[in-house]
Amino acid sequence: MNNRKVIVKIPASTANLGPGFDTLGMALSLYSWIEMSVSERTEIQLFGDQMKGLPRDKSNLIYKVAQLVFKEAGVSVPELLISMYSDIPLTRGLGSSASAIVGALVAANALIGSPLTDDKLFQIATALEGHPDNVGASLFGGIVVSAWDGERADYVRIEPHHKLETLVAIPAFQLSTEKARHALPAQISMADAVFNVGRSSLLVAALASGELGIIRHAMKDRLHQPYRAALIPGMTTILERAHQFGALGAALSGAGPTLIAFVDADCPDKKALERFLLDTLKMEGIEAETLWLSPCAEGPEITVEQRSEQTSGSLLDRIKGDVKA
Ligand SMILES: Nc1ncnc2c1ncn2[C@@H]1O[C@H](COP(=O)(O)OP(=O)(O)OP(=O)(O)O)[C@@H](O)[C@H]1O
Ligand SMILES: N[C@@H](CCO)C(=O)O
């Protein structure tokens, strides 16, 4: 173990997919990387604009989560060398915290010979994140349908349809999950609960069977998006009108503020959809970045090597060419 170096590449994720609040997640082709090895003194290197302001001492989330794995496995590894680079923007609704938690769990587990099963990692990740949707997608890849009762999380993974693509519009402001959850009511009506059970069930069936045409009706939601709309000006217009510009459906990504449109790869005018999202946000005074992302069918990619191997170099050298252009 002392000589081992682990590098993991973890996908971002979009949660809820509209009606599946805290239940549905899909991994996306945007990534973060964590390198971890045993050291004599803990050192944390954070690379990239997304990592600005995060702690570089033992209070860092990656270090703390790694220690949970060692404790669970009954081993002691107090000092770690950790490097991280991420293309996943923080607090924008693309699962940055879930990717950090999953990456730390997977890297720490691989460092000590993988004593913990994926299911165990999923249970820990869900308890840490507080809901299974983002962590399930980052850990298993593809589309993950999950349920958590506060003690145990169960899931089923669905292979994403080969024609499914997504367009995300990432507003230039942050919105923490905590703040976006505070906007939600403590109770909802039976009519709204029935509405969401119907849409969420329809969406899962559509994604599993490849009936993409029904997605537009299935992505509707009354549980969280209406209450969060005031935090994301322009959101309601985008959700209501995205289909007119060729989207299969649209939703708030996770807790927002990112908006996500599901698109058929054969959509004839992708530029028009992109312009519609950007223009709608701009009319509200919001600058945004758009990215075309594919569903990521795989969970974390794990590389374990001996530190003495010739292949070693800095994390940035290793992943160069793989990062977002
Ligand atoms: N690599 C990291 N190292 C340490 N902390 C991180 C890292 N990545 C994310 N975090 C923590 O997670 C917080 C963001 O979590 P939050 O749940 O608010 O947003 P998100 O995960 O990006 O979006 P969403 O959950 O809506 O998809 C950051 O402010 C930071 O505290
Ligand atoms: N299901 C979560 C995802 C964000 O972490 C929410 O919408 O609050």
Briefly note the CATH topology name of the largest domain: Ribosomal Protein S5, domain 2
CATH class of the largest domain equals Alpha Beta
As a percent range, the share of helical residues equals: 25-40%
Distance between the termini: 34 Å
In short, what is this structure?
This protein is an alpha+beta fold.
Question: Your description of this structure?
Answer:
The longest helix has 20 residues, at 190-209. Strands 1, 2, 3, 4, 5, 6 and 11 form a seven-stranded mixed beta sheet that branches. Strands 8-9-7-10 form a four-stranded antiparallel beta sheet. The protein is 34% helix and 25% strand. A hairpin with a 6-residue loop joins strand 8 and strand 9. It has 325 residues and is α+β, with helices and mostly antiparallel strands. The model has no long low-confidence stretch (mean pLDDT 95). It has two domains: 4-159 and 298-319, Ribosomal Protein S5, domain 2 (2-Layer Sandwich); 164-293, Alpha-Beta Plaits, CATH 3.30.70.890. Bound molecules: adenosine-5'-triphosphate (ATP) and L-homoserine. Residues 15-16, 21-22, 131, 133-134, 177, 180-181, 224, 254-255 line the site of L-homoserine.
Question: Which key phrases capture this entry?
Answer:
2 domains, alpha+beta, binds adenosine-5'-triphosphate, 325 residues, Ribosomal Protein S5, domain 2, transferase, 11 helices, ATP-binding, binds L-homoserine, Alpha-Beta Plaits, homoserine kinase activity, threonine biosynthesis, 4-stranded antiparallel sheet
